[in-house]
Amino acid sequence: MPILMSNTETIPGKTIVEFYGVVSGNTVRAKHVGRDIMAGFKNLVGGELAAYTELLSDSRKEAVARMLEQAESMNANAVVNVRFATSSVAQGAAELFAYGTAVRVQ
Questions:
Q1: Cα distance between residue 76 and residue 101, in whole Å
Q2: In the chain, N or C terminus with fewer CB closer than 10 Å?
Q3: Which CATH number fits domain 4-105: 3.30.70.270, 3.40.50.720, 3.90.550.10, 3.30.110.70?
Q4: How far is CA 43 from the centre of its chain?
Q5: Do residues 102 and 18 lie in contact, with contact meaning Cβ atoms separated by under 8 Å?
Q6: CA-based nearest residue to 20, from 63, 77, 84
Q7: Helices (H), 3-103
Q8: Measured between alpha carbons, how far is 42 from 93 in angstroms, rounded to an integer?
Q9: Which of 67, 73, 77 is nearest to 14 (CA)?
Q10: Could you read off the pLDDT of 75-92 as tens digits, one per residue?
Q11: Is the pLDDT of residue 65 over 70?
């Protein structure tokens, strides 16, 4: 059964019966030179930077997967209070961080 995830303090319709603690997952991604060139062109004319949108989406998925793996290793079946944070790690590289509280629900 997949691990449930919520950005609220509870899982609707479920009761938290055990807390396991904070779980997290992260990934650090660097920008691609080809994407930067295309982004520069988009900045001139406006519009969505689709390559960066895709990069951030992939980063979120990876960070969440790592967070859920950690929760599963603790025997949790849910993660509540899920949050995301980003930070610049180096020039051209950023970290996407996902975290929450691992719990068991019934």
A1: 9
A2: N
A3: 3.30.110.70
A4: 26
A5: no
A6: 77
A7: 33-45, 50-73
A8: 20
A9: 77
A10: 999 999 999 999 988 887
A11: yes
